[in-house]
Records
---
Amino acid sequence: VSSCCILSHKVENMKLFEREFRLLFTKEELLIEDSKFLLKFSISQENSNIIANVNKFSFKDYNISTNSSLLIKTDEDVYDMNGSISSDIVSFDYSFSVSDREIVFHITKLYSNDIKSLFSAISTYIKLDKELVEWVSKKAVAKEYYINDFKLVLSKKFISGYDIKNLSANAKVKNLDLVLNNGVESILIPNLDLNLSKEKLDFYFEQASFNAKDISRSKVFIYDITNPKKIGIYVRVLSDELKLDKALHKLLNSYGIM
């Protein structure tokens, strides 16, 4: 893109997040699309910066609306996008920055009551670890999610691809159903605070139960959350009510303890 004027530009196969996009850039609009996604901006220019506002946004199979803008710093080759998104499964505010060195994705005020569909939509464009998806969409499922702050920073590798430079978040969850292993009773947590830092997701709660027995003094966290070869869960169960009954025996047996 020229720093003195906006030129027409067309790219049929622009690769981003391992998917092929079509990009059309003219004096009046910017269009980015693939088979499932369409994003159209009206554009203007101030000195070497190009300013774009979203006037059409669609995502196949999802009812989505957005109020977003994009700033392109042509002399630095930096793309900064921010705004808000609302749909049937999620709503949030966001900022998204792309440079030749890194990608920064920041989300605030996120609410979702269908995390499984949300991760399905995300995995369309970003390759997520299967173990992580299984934990979030099957093993640890809640009725409602409130993410106060989420930040992901990807640094570009020397040859190709990206590494996770920083991943952090804090959130609140209502009515969590935590399944430690297939075929065993789940742990029920009515209200849960989550904190993600240094690849560790900590669970903070005042009430929890297993097989209708109180285990509120227990400790739970997920470790090495970005490492598919090491990711796992730590559970320390503390209770004055828990007995070695059939449900607990089945849980222990699933870990090879009994």
---
Amino acid sequence: TEIYTLSLHDALPILPLLQGQNVFELARKIPGLSGVQLQMIWHGEDISVGDRARELKQQARDNGMLTPSIAGIWQPGENIFGGKIAERALLNAIRTASTLEAGVILVVMFKENCPDMNDPKSYGPVVELFQKMAPLAVNAKTKLCVETSLLPQDDRKLVEMVNHPAMGVYFDATNTETYHPGSSLQGIRILRNCIGEVHLKNGDHLLNQQPSKVNWTEAIREYREIHYDHWYCFETEHASPERCITDTVANMAFVREQLS
């Protein structure tokens, strides 16, 4: 059974949620939606501090929602090469994920903040850090999933070098097409069991609309072929709360059709 979650990272700046409505109240209005991906650090707020994560967990429960994953773990200027700073960020994320019962932590590593998998001096410290953090993640019943600007085969190489069940890939086919045109469908096949969660997005268009960097009909069928059975997270843009609801319903129907 497919399960759907919504990332409101792109939507929230334009959604008028300041009059007592929280993200879970909005999500509850979307038939078939099961959860919301939360940003740990967003607009200056860090939910790993104090009781904010616990409050959000209660809001989710009150609205019949789950928090399957968290993203946005870096403060401005932080990245995976930050040594003790990076370790602290990952520890904060693991603690927050544990509180929220989030099974996946999205760890962004793009461009200059991404290891060069052809250079041991670049990827070596990153592998060591993940090897140190992964056992803590599994104890917290969560998983560290990297979303990178690497080729899919290099994503797999990184995961295999860490060699721990709490390490995986957060696959975003649109980002893969942005950095490596033509590689997203093959990337799904290459990564297969390394994929811990996926983003589905097409800017402010529906998944089945053009223009689109990804052939979503084929991409979702590839997920079906590899027996992907984790969350589908819609990282979409909307002009209003009403559009967020109707667009997400339409996107879920489209995904169901391709999976049937």
---
Amino acid sequence: VPTQRAASTHAHILRSTLPYCTNLRELQLFVRPRDLYAVEALNTFFAKTIAPLPTIHLCCAPPPLGDSVRDPMPVVTDVIREIASRRHLLHALSLDCCYTIGHAAAKELATGLGPTLQRLALDASLFQDWTVLASFPNLVELRLQNTLMSDADLRRLLPHLPLLETFAVHQVSSITCAGLEPLARLHQLHTLEFSRCVGIENEAVLALARISSLTTVRLVHIDVSASSLEILVRDMGPRLISLSVNAISTAHASSL
């Protein structure tokens, strides 16, 4: 944990160097739950530059012991508000270990980035209300990892993302076949990835074969039977461009 002086030094370095990055295309920012220097630096950077900044990766340190990961962290909320203020310029946003993102910050994200955000990745980050993602109708890529989204949340959300091309889910146990039904109506969807999702089983894999636009499938550590794999490959074979199936038994692999 940095001292106050160290945090002040970080703020000074960021404030004095970021404005020179006039062609910056990607910014990765690591913040601690109670550090304010990142907020100050972003504020200064955004105030002094008008250059487009297409991609921001925000990574947060774990909250202090005793803090609930379900409670929004003030510094994270402030940083997200600064990102949201970068209206109509950001195309890709990655939130890592931001834990719960409160209603107010989520609304500001939707208002500021809604028209242009195309790629969103959430790792150990969740919204108190997932319907906020419906405010990003131009999303072409959505990646969920180590987060909490229910089948009901997913069914409500997917119809609002008609341009979605890539949907990736990693270590999300709460999503099952029941939540994937709207995927078949996303006609731009061509890539699906599921990794270590205990709720994705044979029924879900069979449902993938019914998505006519799908050309790329990646299944990593998914419990699927040989017969389901056989049906998937048989029905999708003519249109498959890429198939990746990892960590399956010899019996399952024989079906390929």
---
Amino acid sequence: GLQEIWIYGGKTLELAAGRDNTLSARLTEHPNSPGEVTAVHPEGIGSIEVVSGETVRLANPDNDITGKATIADGAKLVVASSGALGGGSSDEGKLYGYVSNVWTESGTLQLGDANATVVEQAIGTIHVGTEGSINLQEGSQLTIAGFENAGNRSLADNKILGHINGADDTGLIITGGTELLVSTDDNVTDKTSSFLTTVTGDSTLTLGNSKSLGTGVIKLTGTNDGGKTRLRVRATSTLRATVMRSSSRMRGRRSQVR
């Protein structure tokens, strides 16, 4: 069967369900030759898009793409293995790039499913519109890690305005100096939105209202180089959440923020 798909720089691979909805072939960027590199077709930046209304599973842990992953209206992208959106490594230790931008207005980004093991996936930046959603399946973790040296890559605005679904064994991690806004009143106050949120690596998390992160724990972790992590709550909101603060100087101090 199909083993590998090359996405030339500046090109977007459109994905739709076929005989089944799983793509197991490896996705990798193919640099244009020097004479082909332009602003419109930059070297080695490949993107993907799940077309409207389709559900597609990416199952190859060795994918190596650094462009944009678009989830069109009503579509769902299932990350069925760690590294399916890049960020894994080869047997020789080579690190693969991860997507710099996940963007959806009314689609769904899902990590893991009934046929997948626990999925841990890093991405650069993210935008989820008010009709969009993030679905964290059993034990899965989504890391928004920032993206240095973006070059010609299009980065998202780091806003999650839609629903986040995840039980208390799942997690959202903000790192790499990322500034993320989560603002939705749709994260219900029960176990379906009780995921752990970790803010680390000189990053900032801003909450738009008291339901933005459901009922889960928020963990603020300092850095050894003196970097700071920040939690901001808009003045019009009242936050009821458990916050755990830890750094090289603080060990497991737990407080209630109301």
